[in-house]
Amino acid sequence: MTARHVLAIDQGTTSSRAIIFDHGGTIVSVGQLEHEQLLPRAGWVEHDPAEIWRNVREAVAQALSRAELNALDIAAVGITNQRETAVVWDRHTGVPVYNAIVWQDTRTDRICAELAGEAGADRYKDRVGLPLATYFSGPKVRWILDNVPGARERAAAGDLLFGNTDSWVLWNMTGGVEGGVHVTDVTNASRTMLMDLRTLDWDESIATEMGIPLAMLPAIRSSSEVYGVGREHGMLTGVPIAGILGDQQAATFGQACFEPGMAKNTYGTGNFMLANTGTAPVRSENGLLTTVCYQLGEQPAVYALEGSIAVTGSLVQWLRDNLGIISSAAEVEALAATVADNGGAYFVPAFSGLFAPYWRSDARGALVGLTRFVNKGHIARAALEATAFQTREVLDAMNTDSGVALTELKVDGGMVANEALMQFQADILGVDVVRPRVAETTALGAAYAAGIAVGFWDGEQDVVDNWAEDRRWSPRMADAERERTYRLWKKAVTRTFDWVDADVT
Predict the structure, then answer these.
(1) Which of 174, 312, 457, 478 lies at a C-alpha separation of 20 to 30 Å from 154?
(2) pLDDT < 70: residue spans in the chain
(3) CA–CA separation, 202 vs 214, rounded Å?
(4) C-alpha pair distances (Å), 203 with each of 191, 256, 377
C-alpha cells in the first residue's frame, strides 16, 4: 500500500474537523471550521446541515493542503460525529427539510411523555438500552414529521431520508443525489431509540409507535468496513470511506479500551464516560445507558455502559458568550485560579435538563450558595468544578452497576488541557486521572476503524501499541474534604428539580 495516511472527519457539536494521521497515530495536519449554534427558542438547539457539509469539505481541503497531500496519499477515511443530532433530507434534491435538531435540544419532551404513557420512561429500555428522553434521535424525527408541512406525506412516499450527522456526511461524500450511500453504523444506530441492541437491526414496532417509516432509516453496518468511496468534486475521489463511530465510542476506541472494565471520559461540549462491558449488553440499574461500543466487520459487537452529561465545556462557552466574564474559553482556568476555592458557590448547569444518572428533563440550571463574597473568579471555579462533580456522579453509578471499582480514568477532549480541572477531577474521584499523548482520541478512533478495515493497521493491537501516557494526576484532597464538597454538590443538584411545569418551557 503506497498511501501512508488516514483521514478522519470529526463532525462535532460546535465544529467540523478533518485530521490526518500517520501509521503511528500521530497528527500530521488539521483543518477545522466552527458552525453556527441556532437557538430559536428556549430549549431549542439547531444546526444548519448545509453549513455543516460545506465546512466538512473545506476542513478536508485545509488538512490536505496544509500537509501537501492529495487523495492518493490517503488510505481510508473514517467519520465520527455528534451522535443524536437528527437530520432529515430529501433523497431527490439533497435539501434538508428542516435544520438538524441537536442532541441538547429539549423540544421533544412532550413527545417522550406521550410515548412513555403508563409504562414510563423505561418503556423501550430492555430492547434499546435507553430511557425515553429528549436526548435521542427518534423523537426528534417524529417532531420534524409532525411539524414540517408536508414532511409526513413525503416520508410515507419514500422521498425523505433520516440520519445522524454521520449518515448526512457519508451520503454527500459518496455522491449525494447521484447514488449517495445511506448507511449508519451500529454505534450511531444505538442512539436513535429505534435499534434492538441484541439483533442490531431496526425495531419495526418502535418505529411504528413513533410514526417513523422504516424507509427513512439508513442501513445499519459495522463500525469498520468499506461503505463506499469518495465521489465529491475530486477531493477524495476513489478513497474508501471505511469507518464510522459515534464520537464517544470513537474516543473509547482511540483510548484502546478493548477489555471489559476499561473506561474513558471525554470532556467536550458535554462529558461522556464509557466503560467496555464485553460482547453482551449490560442493563443499568443506576441511570446509565446501555449502548454499542464498536463492531469490527463481522466480529461480534462490543457493548458499553455510558454516563452522558449534557453540559460541561458548553458551560465555559456560556460564561464567554452569555455572561461575557471571559473573552476566550482558555481564560477560564486563569480566572478560576484567582480564588482559593469556590467560595461556597455551586453551579449545576441543567440547561438541557439533567442527563445521567438522573434523567430529569424538568430540571434547569441553578447557581446556589451565593453570598456577597462570591465574585466572577468563584463563578468560574464553580463552573469548572461542575464538570468534575458530574463526572463523580457518573463514576459512582458505573462502579455500582459493574460491581468493580474503577482504579484510574483515561481522559480526553478539549478540557483535558486545563490542568487545574484535571487535578480537581482526580481529587473529587479519589483515583488517578490519565491523559494520553494524543488527546484527539475521537478522530483517532475513527481513523483506526477505517484503517483497520483496509489493512492499514492490523487490528486492536496496533491501537494498543500506539497509545502512550502523557500526564497523570493523583488525588491530593483529604477524604473528609472530598466528601464534604460532594455532599454540598448533591444538595445543589436537588435545587434544579421540578422547575419545568406544563406552562413553562
Answers:
(1) 174
(2) 1, 232-234, 502-505
(3) 8
(4) 13, 31, 50
